[in-house]
Specification:
Layout (H helix, E strand, L loop, with lengths): L1 H33 L2 H27 L14 H31 L7 H32 L4 H7 L3 H30 L3 H30 L5 H12 L4 E13 L2 E10 L5 H18 L3 E8 L5 H11 L5
Parallel strand pairs: 2-3
Antiparallel strand pairs: 1-2
Length: 325
């Protein structure tokens, strides 16, 4: 399942990469021909998106490397790192250039515009290509949300796959940016004032900066070490608490170590009637049961502790601020 989803993510990124590369070249030519600041800002937008896709592909490739002695939990978080770098790229190579171009155009008040129909044709074609790429991301999100039994919005908020989320947001921003550029070119043609081109460029820059911030914040949380989704945590707790050999689940911690990969640490109070050998065999059985029921669990650590141990309780209080997890 994980390999299938990784293949879906790769296909989504490759489609976005091809679309953005073609669109970026067309926008650049149209911007140079028409003299439109908004078109040049959109060319920078596509350049940023193309760079982003390359970074996401790097993350996909490196995150699939197997665990080794230096990285015993694998390289899954490499995908989060490269997605964070992609967010920075969107801001630096797209947002900053668009804002600078907008300020320059508004300050100079340039009104010269040639062959506006070229800009309209390129923007229309770009909208179709970007829409195709965005629709691919939407369909993948819907399929994965349905498979996990959750809603579209909840899947987006809790997703551990930054590649699809990044493509979804950047292509969505690209569609909005194309509409802004179309408005800027059209108002420039109607009024003869290049200020509208500059305003469109500024809005495109602000849009890209907002998208970059949102993506960067999401990937920062994954890099720091976000817990698994509530459904998985609840399911694991219920499975352990309902087992006849366990008196109580003393503490339960999870962390995403990659896309569809979760690290589980559970402190359990086993029944006093069990011998040391019984506890060892029960731990092995619980490991098998949990992996069979929750395929996302990658590493499982089960620690026997007494329920009222003061040190464990103190750590729980320090972590959660209450006597519970």
């Amino acid at each position: 399942m994980a390999e299938e989803e990784s293949g879906e993510s790769t296909a989504t990124v490759l489609l976005a990469l091809g679309a953005n590369l073609a669109i970026g070249l067309l926008k650049l030519v149209a911007g140079l021909i028409t003299g439109s600041g908004a078109m040049l800002a959109e060319a920078a937008h596509s350049a940023a998106d193309t760079t982003t896709q390359g970074l996401l592909l790097t993350g996909l490739r490196r995150s699939s490397r197997p665990a080794d002695r230096r990285h015993p939990f694998g390289y899954g978080k490499a995908r989060y790192f490269w997605a964070l770098i992609a967010a920075v790229s969107i801001f630096v190579s797209g947002g900053v250039f668009a804002i600078i171009e907008g300020v320059r155009t508004v300050a100079s008040g340039e009104s010269e515009q040639t062959l506006p129909w070229v800009a309209y044709a390129v923007l229309g074609g770009a909208f179709l290509l970007e829409g195709t790429s965005w629709l691919r991301a939407v369909l993948q999100v819907r399929a994965e949300a349905k498979a996990e039994g959750t809603t579209f919005v909840r899947w987006m908020r809790g997703s551990d796959d930054p590649t699809v989320v990044t493509v979804f947001f950047e292509d969505g921003a690209a569609l909005i940016g194309l509409l802004l550029a179309f408005a800027g070119v059209g108002l420039h043609q109607l009024t003869g004032s290049g200020v509208w081109d500059g305003v469109a460029s500024l809005l495109i820059g602000v849009l890209l900066a907002g998208v970059a911030y949102a993506l960067g914040r999401a990937n920062m949380g994954l890099l720091i070490g976000r817990s698994a989704g509530p459904a998985l945590v609840r399911g694991v707790r219920e499975h352990l608490a309902g087992h006849e050999g366990i008196s109580a689940v003393v503490d339960l911690m999870t962390m995403m170590t990659g896309t569809d990969r979760v690290l589980l640490c559970a402190r359990l109070d086993f029944r006093d009637s069990l011998s040391a050998g019984d506890v060892e065999r029960l731990c092995v059985r619980l490991d098998d049961e949990l992996r069979a029921r929750f395929p996302d669990l990658d590493e499982i650590f089960l620690e026997p502790v007494p329920r009222e141990d003061p040190h464990v309780r103190a750590r729980r209080l320090a972590r959660y601020g209450l006597d519970g997890g």
